[in-house]
Design goal:
The chain has twelve helices and 19 strands. With 393 residues, it is an alpha/beta fold. Strands 5-4-1-6-10-7-11 form a seven-stranded mixed β-sheet, sandwiched between helices. It has a six-stranded parallel β-sheet with strand order 16-15-12-17-18-19, sandwiched between helices. Strands 2-3 form a two-stranded antiparallel sheet. Strand 8 (146-148) and strand 9 form a beta hairpin. Helix 6 (215-235) packs across helix 12 (379-392) and helix 7 (271-281) packs parallel to helix 12 (379-392).
Length: 393
């Protein structure tokens, strides 16, 4: 479909009863709803992302995360109101207020935070490839289902209990994930439910299927999300890294300084970071500390760790270029870790720009990899361990 207009809608009402305020509770450092918004914005088929909500706090977080908000009336915001009502209201509101009518509607549930942009695109692609009217994300299902009959006997639902076929002998079956649904808008407006006409399936990886309904689901999601995020960070690193270059303030430290009465300054560094650097240094990878800070504490820390050091540097990008040329290194295979706007030139010069978790927003926006840890609080150890894993993999 040429020039297809695709709208992603995420219903998120404020009155969750099972887990109060579920849609905005922090999960692995971000509100739950932010995950779907982030991935929808990255999906190549999606043109616009809208959150349908009746809640001001959800609306504010949605806007901060880059989504448009359509305010849902109270009569379709209760726990018995269907998702279809929210979707229909969103389409009708956008038609009335903007004259906007998409060709395809993507319905995302923010209770599935492991969903990736590729799952959204994959479900849309399944609809297009199979010339379908609707599509959904599924995972392979190979378990035996049971039910009880009125007499109390247990009966097989998807199997004959007298026969136990091997998995490879059974007809393939699939479980609806609840993560992604796709509908052609004209058919949806006519049918007013998510499944009409021909339905296609997109088979997503089983490890990304998770719906948060109970408190324990949050604990599981926290672990899986951190593993997913670490895998993505590692995948974004070049496999053939030639050097690691590190800013000092805000990377080795938490960006604060201790000032004594006589004017002397001191900083606090993390011993765990030092251990991570020491382990990476054993691999023979060149590591440079590059800082505008003239305080001798920079060189003292670098010397203790056995690292090359350039400090008191006014033009860091120029100094980095000269160092790379002298070492005979390819800038495209170098990692630079920074935290503030004076690191921007260096980050643009190298092949992989890394920001600590608490970096300036400008730096976060330019980074290829954003670390989970803040400067002076484990960021160095994290990047060192990611590099070692990347090189060993």
């Amino acid at each position: 479909m040429n020039n297809m207009e695709c709208l992603a809608v995420i219903p998120a009402r404020g009155g969750s009863k099972g887990i109060p305020r579920k849609n905005i509770l922090p999960l692995a450092s971000k509100p739950l709803i932010a995950y779907n918004i982030e991935q929808a914005r990255q999906a190549r088929y999606v043109n616009r992302v809208v959150v349908s909500t009746d809640d001001a706090e959800i609306g504010a977080i949605a806007k901060q995360s880059g989504a448009q908000v359509v305010w849902r009336p109270a009569e379709i915001s209760g726990d018995r109101a269907s998702s279809e009502l929210a979707l229909l209201h969103t389409l009708e509101s956008m038609q009335q207020n903007e004259g906007y009518r998409p060709d395809v509607l993507v319905f995302l549930q923010c209770t599935s935070p492991l969903t990736l942009a590729e799952d959204i695109d994959g479900t849309v692609q399944a609809l297009l490839d199979q010339a379908a009217d609707t599509a959904l994300a599924v995972i392979p299902f190979h378990y035996f289902l049971w039910r009880s009959d009125p007499d109390g006997d247990s009966l097989g639902i998807n199997h004959d209990k007298r026969i136990r076929p091997l998995r490879q002998e059974r007809e393939p079956q699939y479980l609806e994930t609840g993560a992604v649904y796709v509908m052609r808008v004209p058919g949806f407006l006519a049918a007013r439910h998510r499944f009409f006409g021909r339905t296609a399936m997109y088979v997503m990886p089983t490890e990304r299927r998770l719906e948060i309904d109970d408190p324990v689901d949050y604990q599981v999601a926290e672990v899986l999300l951190r593993d997913q995020q670490a895998a993505r960070r590692q995948a974004n690193l070049p496999r053939d890294v030639q050097a690691l270059v590190l800013d000092f303030d805000g990377v080795f430290t938490d960006n604060r300084v201790i000032v004594f009465q006589d004017g002397r300054e001191a900083v606090i560094c993390d011993r765990g970071d030092g251990h991570g650097v020491a382990q990476l240094k054993k691999t023979g990878l060149p590591i440079l500390v590059l800082s505008t800070e003239s305080n001798p504490v920079v060189r003292a820390r670098a010397t203790k760790l056995g690292l090359a050091c350039l400090h008191g540097i006014a033009n860091k990008a120029e100094a980095l270029q000269k160092w790379l040329a002298k070492q005979g290194l390819d800038a495209a295979k170098v990692i630079y870790v920074g935290n503030d706007v004076n690191d921007l030139g260096c980050m643009q010069l190298v092949g992989c720009a890394v920001a600590v978790a608490d970096a300036h927003p400008t730096i976060l926006g330019q980074a290829d990899v954003v670390l989970q840890h803040a400067g002076g609080q484990g960021a160095l150890r994290e990047i060192c361990e990611l590099i070692m894993l990347s090189r060993s993999g």
